[in-house]
Amino acid sequence: MTFRIVVFISLCLSVGLAWIIESGATDVFLEATRPDFQKIPLGVAGIDNSGGADSPAGRIRLGNRIEEVLKADVRRSQVFSLVDLASIGIKVGSLGAVPDPEFKKAAEQGVSVIVWGKAGMTNDAKDPDVNMDGYVYDAGNDEMVGGKRYAGATSVVRLMAHRFADELVFRYTGEPGIARTKIAYVSEQGAARELFVMDYDGYDARQLTADGFLNLMPKWSPDRRFIVFTSYRNRNTQNIDMIELATGKRWTLVSLSGLNITPALSPDGNFLAFASSHEGNSELYSLDTRTKAMQRLTVHAGGDLSPSWSPSGRELVFTSDRSGGPQIFLMSMDGTNVRRLTFEGDYNAAPAWSPRGNWIAYVCRSPKKEYKICLITPDGQKRVQLTSGPGVDDSPSWSPDGRHLVFSSTAGGKSQIYMINADGKDLERITFTGTHNSAPTWSPAS
Amino acid sequence: MKRLQSIMCAPLILGFVLLGLSGCSSKAVQSGGDVQSSQQGAGKGSNEGGVSQNIPDTSFSGQNGSGGLRGLDKNPSEERLGGNTLTAKADSGASRQMEEIRAEQIASAAAGLRDVFFAYDSFVISEEGRQILARNAEWIKSNPGAQLKVEGHCDERGTSAYNLVLGEKRAKSVRNYLVELGVSPKQLSVVSYGKERPACTEHTESCYSQNRRGHLVVKTGK
What we know:
The complex is a heterodimer of chains A (about 450) and B (about 220).
Chain A: E1 6-8, E2 19-21, E3 27-30, E4 40-49, H1 62-77, E5 80-83, H2 102-108, E6 113-121, E7 129-138, E8 143-153, H3 157-173, E9 182-189, E10 192-199, E11 206-207, E12 215-220, E13 226-231, E14 239-244, E15 250-254, E16 260-265, E17 271-276, E18 283-288, E19 294-296, E20 304-309, E21 315-320, E22 327-332, E23 339-340, E24 348-353, E25 360-365, E26 371-376, E27 383-385, E28 393-398, E29 404-409, E30 416-421, E31 428-429, E32 437-442
Parallel strand pairs in A: 4-5, 4-6
Antiparallel strand pairs in A: 1-3, 2-3, 6-7, 7-8, 9-10, 9-32, 10-11, 12-13, 13-14, 14-15, 16-17, 17-18, 18-19, 20-21, 21-22, 22-23, 24-25, 25-26, 26-27, 28-29, 29-30, 30-31
Chain B: H1 2-8, H2 10-19, H3 21-30, E1 39-41, E2 78-81, H4 94-111, E3 116-117, H5 127-142, E4 148-153, H6 160-180, E5 188-194, H7 205-211, E6 213-218
Parallel strand pairs in B: 4-5
Antiparallel strand pairs in B: 3-6, 4-6
């Protein structure tokens, strides 16, 4: 965000340059991930298992575990390209705090950054303490340019790798990285659907609700403290509830009669946009969370739902079936200036505005009647179908760096959660257990 | 045509909405606030209830840019990382509420009420559906003390969110037709489960058609 520069424009620039146009607004954002952005070649020389002979043999290969998580984070960052050092003939022995002489040879072959370190744990059998040291060699400087030292319980081993990966992204881009972000989602538990939160890579899932009813369509507050969602706990209306992650404390925000669904907090956290059918059919409303004043945004006989905020908070993209089947529409946050965005296909729904502003992801129905993820620019000029093949794809949600999407898909039979790059590459399944996981929503960066 | 019909039924729906308001306000009070909301801008509200006055501060001033990172250091000092302590608190009411659902299933089965099925993407009641609803209406009219929930369900195709809206349209189609047949609207409430409570979980057309349904439930609790 700090690197986002707002510039006023007087002319349109073609897509593919470093300029990204936010449709309908007068501002344009200079983006760090332009298409010609070269990934930085990075090698992981290894995270040694320290702790020496007194470390319980084979109990846990800590270094290997951390190295594995770190490499996956580096690969997913899309800032670095992960170089296999062994494949270019670089053999590193025991690693200390100083760079290995081999690093210079790797640098000569084009590797820009090499990271290495060690990890071990104390001998306290009941409550061992984990320690990790990580170092960074920069080929430009030909020296160790900095390091990190982490300590904590065994439960934070993965977090050490994630945090180190984010430090690398921060150093080389000025952005905080996504390795410590979370994904909230819905998981079937018997007849109920409950909210869960997991790490962005699918690990460390935690259950958030346990009320035995349906809990649907979670969305994060911009400060990551809360999740808003639709709850069926009250048997007569479907309410919009909010839960605080740190405490589990829960509030009912909207309990209008009928169906209250698809809540979304504005980027400044001051407005809750949602759909409610209390006046007949599903319409969009905006609730000022400070004054508690509610404003109706749409007036139409068709159903309006699924609002998603532009990064500036000035506009909303939403689903409406006012023209027959569901289509994607845009409007200002006060309900004015409504215009239709999608015209291709007879079913387009569940829009999600990229945090960088340049794309809107949504579910499109292909000519083969398959429900897939599509992207469209807010000016409607460019549209791409991101996923293909069998299975129903649903609920696209952007990573805070705008480089990835998560979504649910029944491609493998049961509904599970997948991650994909915004350019359609590196499709990766991230949930594997349970009978049904859906409605993933990516947290803001910390 | 169907849309026109639903618009014409709007006053009726409104009446029902107002009837259901008392339960609504008690919920809002339970969640800690007075029942108040102001209406401005494009629309005029008919329902002033149901917005909590007790909302925690969600304002966000923006990121500091570093995301809590401290940067690399040639002589790094130790950073101690805390674990994630989040765990769900078991809701003591959950099992009792599930028992209530089971009791309703038994009561509904005993009443012999049958489901109405819908075509793909549609909330129009078929001729077969009308015959089924005519029989269901007879039972409801002869049991004026019964309270029923009209559930709208969808197949797994399409988005979770839009299917909730489609499910509500189906439930309202069923409710409106039952009212046309002389059932008291006071006996009926609607709820949409979208594609979240499928009767059948295979990815086949026969399964999909079983899931696109309007389902009547006899309420046993409140």
